Amino acid sequence: MSEATESKHQLLHILNKYKIVLIIAVPVIIAVTIGITLILSSSENKSREAWNKLWEASRNQALAIQSDSKEKDKVLTRAINEFNYVINDIASAKVSPWAMFKLGGTYFASEKYDKAIETYSLFLKKNRNHYLAPFVRQTMGYSYEQTGQLKSAIEQFEEIDEEILLVQKNLDLGRCYEKMGDQKKAKDAYNTVLELEDSDNNWIRLAQHRLDALN
Question: Of 64, 116, 62, 106, whose CA–CA distance to 83 is shortest?
Fold first, then answer.
């Protein structure tokens, strides 16, 4: 099993345990579990430079979360510039998908939803089978939802087949169908959450709450 594959499995275990689906949290965890491993193992100067730049930008992205509003915008802009540098100037085939993924998340955090959609669309065009694709579709769906494009959001959520995202996927679908006024499909999505989860937790309670509200 390759280092990247092992790291992916570690990431999925962490996400499954803690149900982490936040836009910023996912890239930070990925950077820890995979990026650091590949920085240390890469023998190519270009790849090493790209991973180091990616890690630096990821740190700025994480710092932005803890900053006040004015400082946050400055730090996020710095991260955006650094991710774009990795993608366009270093152009490492190994690192570019990660940089595009994190760039999209930074645009989302900056409320630049159209730019996030543009970045994620390019990611899927170039890296459709990359194991980050389900996470890209998830945040792309959120970006469409934020801009009122609910049908496009649903299309992205429907494409997600990563097991650990299925519960969140159906909560997202239910929410979008509710916004569209389609109560039947919303209920179907929330009932799927109840079927997927085998113990009482926040996801179960949220789905049941929405079902009660719709009945």
Answer: 106
Average pLDDT over residues 68-81: 83
Q: Are 120 and 112 in contact (CB under 8 A)?
A: no
Report H helices in the chain: 3-18, 25-30, 36-41, 45-65, 69-85, 96-109, 113-126, 133-146, 150-158, 166-180, 183-196, 202-214
Q: What's the average model confidence in pLDDT over 23-37? A: 49
Angle, CA 114 vertex, CA 113 and CA 119 arms, to 5°: 95
| Residue range 171-193: mean pLDDT, rounded | 96
Task: Check: CB of residue 204 under 8 Å from CB of residue 194.
Answer: yes
Average pLDDT, the chain: 82
According to the model, what pLDDT value does residue 49 have? Answer: 82
The torsion of the CA quartet 133, 139, 144, 150, rounded to 10 degrees, works out to: 90
Collapsed DSSP state (helix, strand, coil) of residue 21: coil
Contacts with 206 (C-beta within 8 Å, 6 or more apart), sequence order:
171, 193
Looking at the structure, give the CATH architecture of the domain made up of residues 3-148.
Alpha Horseshoe (1.25)
Please give the CATH number for the structural domain made up of 162-215. Answer: 1.20.58
Going from N- to C-terminal start, the domains of the chain cover: 3-148, 162-215
CA-to-CA distance for 4 and 79, rounded, in angstroms?
24
